[in-house]
From TrEMBL:
Record-annotated Peptidase M14 domain positions: 8-360
Source organism of the structure: uncultured Thermomicrobiales bacterium
GO cellular component labels: extracellular space
Protein name: Peptidase M14 domain-containing protein
Pfam families to which the protein is assigned, alphabetical: Peptidase_M14
InterPro entries: Peptidase_M14
Family: Belongs to the peptidase M14 family.
Taxonomy of the source species: Bacteria, Pseudomonadati, Thermomicrobiota, Thermomicrobia, Thermomicrobiales
Length: 553
């Protein structure tokens, strides 16, 4: 098996080669397919990981895992690849073998290959794709550029008696907001390293992004146009990358959960994303979903925050997590994998996402850069003669592999707990079993066949009420078939609705036995000769298949 190394962030071609080598080495456990092509023609790759000897992957409950829908978030690509590697390399361990036999992982390591290539091979940063949006031309203002040619786009500080920034006394690399009594001679203006498009005015303002598309704002649930939701694009699913994602979900009704890796922040975003939790008419997001979220917090040490901010009424419209849940009934999470502040400053966990550091925190972070990174994460301030602005100083954090993505030496320790949690999510799936089949002779070649079908999983067979509400939760069907066997009563296929899971257990015994809600008896009157074999199959898109054969007589 060609190992995944944690010493760099791979290119699209390297990912493709690695996936193909794994599929060839483990043909019973993995296949790779192209589910579409990017705007620039790169294949959009998806790996299916499941033990085919134990049944078709599409007949098993599935967890969808993806990374790198945002071009600059390349850490999730490696964590997604590490998920596949863990499944394959540990396939003989009993716990993992059980996961592979009973469940399926659909893994898409890189959703935005075009943008990721730009991010990995140039100094530029971008959200999703190197496509001009919303304007076909650069707008007036300051645009990020590597003007000193060091391969990084950092920050410029410019002497300005009206500037709002000054140099810290604690560490001269740190820039602080000025106090009212800061002398004019010590004040700076602080802006992104770059060039000005159009006239250089009295005030330097950042131009709107030239590459402004955000694939994770273009899904068709509560989608908002550009003037309300920046990056949404001209219409929902306007780009081939997002359309391929939606089509994949529609083609795989066995997906019951989705783990959508992002970075950064060091927490996990939970549902909902575009409207208040109080607007949902059920308790989906208060019950099993919250239990699984608590396990993420326990296993990773990272806090959870709701994507929709109830206090500020802040929505993330058109996100994949919201669409997958609200329109497909799939439980979704967005782990923001990397937290540079927690790692570098040894501070306690966040009480809110995206907090800023004080001066002492910045100093601790710089000390971490000096000791752990050998100083590579911070460019020392140095003078430069800007062709438009005159004398400036350029320096600051390199950002890409300090703030946005983890330095490579941290990747493996980040990936481990996240992968273990994704395995736990898979094991929470509903799982059909045929507990027993009773055959009773009725005389004259007639038989009563009673099959007891149970849900042995944690979640109910519909997974969540939202799946029922939007008609995406296929019910449990039970079939009886056999050569020479004719079903006279009950129908050859019977639907028994949905079965509760282990999560329905209650500490209130007066509500009735939990087991009764997790089981159902299905009866068939069959005409056949003694000795005929009949097969009973129980199936449900999100709960898998169970098959048992019995002999009449």
């Amino acid at each position: 098996m060609t190992p995944l190394t944690f010493d760099r962030y791979p290119s699209h071609d390297e990912i493709a080669t690695l996936l193909q080598s794994w599929a060839e080495a483990f043909p019973d456990l993995m296949t790779v397919e192209t589910i579409g092509h990017s705007s620039e023609g790169r294949p959009l790759l998806s790996a299916t990981v499941s033990d085919r000897r134990a049944g078709s992957p599409d007949d098993k409950p599935a967890v969808y895992v993806e990374g790198n829908i945002h071009a600059g978030e390349v850490l999730p690509s490696v964590v997604a690849l590490a998920t596949i590697q863990a499944l394959l390399s540990r396939a003989r361990e009993p716990d993992v073998a059980d996961v592979l036999a009973r469940y399926t992982f659909y893994v898409r390591p890189r959703v935005s290959p075009d943008g990721a290539e730009v991010y990995l091979t140039t100094p530029y940063r971008l959200r999703s794709a190197a496509i001009p949006w919303p304007s076909p031309s650069r707008q007036p203002g300051l645009h990020p550029e590597d003007i000193d040619g060091d391969g990084e786009i950092t920050v410029m500080r410019i002497r300005d008696p009206r500037g709002e920034w000054c140099v810290s006394d604690l560490d001269p690399r740190i820039m602080l907001r000025c106090d009212p009594d800061t002398p004019e001679s010590k004040r700076y203006q602080l802006v992104q390293e770059g060039m000005v498009e159009g006239p250089v005015g009295a005030n330097l303002t950042m131009a709107s992004s030239y590459w402004g598309l955000d694939f994770n704002r273009s899904f068709p649930h509560n989608w908002q146009p550009e003037y309300l939701q920046y990056g949404a694009g001209p219409y929902p699913l306007s780009m081939p990358e997002t359309r391929a994602t939606a089509d994949f979900f529609l083609a795989h009704p066995n997906i019951f959960a989705a783990v959508l890796y992002h970075t950064a922040g060091g927490f996990i975003f939970t549902l909902p994303s575009s409207r208040s939790i109080t607007s949902y008419p059920h308790d989906d997001l208060e019950s099993e979903y919250r239990t699984l979220t608590r396990h993420y917090v326990r296993m990773t040490g990272c806090p959870a925050f709701q994507s929709y901010d109830e206090e500020t009424d802040t929505a993330r419209s058109g996100s994949l997590m919201d669409w997958a849940y609200s329109q497909m009934g799939v439980l979704t999470w967005v782990p923001e994998l990397w937290d540079v502040q927690k790692t570098s400053t040894a501070r306690p966990e966040r009480v809110a996402p995206f907090q800023t550091l004080d001066e002492a925190g910045e100093a601790r972070m710089l000390a971490w850069n000096d000791e752990a990174l050998g100083g590579r994460g911070f460019v020392a301030w140095h003078p430069f003669d800007h062709p438009q602005l005159g004398p400036v100083e350029i320096g600051g954090w390199t950002f890409k592999y300090t703030h946005q993505n983890a330095p490579v030496q941290y990747i493996e320790e980040i990936a481990g707990p996240a992968i273990d949690w994704s395995f736990l999510v898979a094991r929470s799936a509903p799982r059909l079993e045929i507990e027993s089949i009773d055959v009773q002779g009725l005389g004259e070649g007639h038989w009563l066949v009673t099959a007891r079908v149970a849900n042995a999983g944690f979640l109910p067979t519909n997974v969540c009420q939202q799946a029922v509400d939007v008609r995406r939760a296929g019910t449990v069907s039970v079939d009886l078939a056999g050569v020479g066997a004719k079903v006279l009563d009950g129908g050859q296929r019977q639907s028994i609705g949905h079965l509760k899971g282990e999560s329905s257990a209650t500490d209130e015994p007066w509500r009735g036995p939990v087991a009764a809600r997790r089981r159902a008896d299905v009866r068939f009157v069959v005409e056949a000769t003694a000795g005929t074999e009949v097969t009973v199959t129980a199936s449900c898109p999100r709960a898998g298949r169970a098959v048992t054969t019995v002999t009449l007589g």
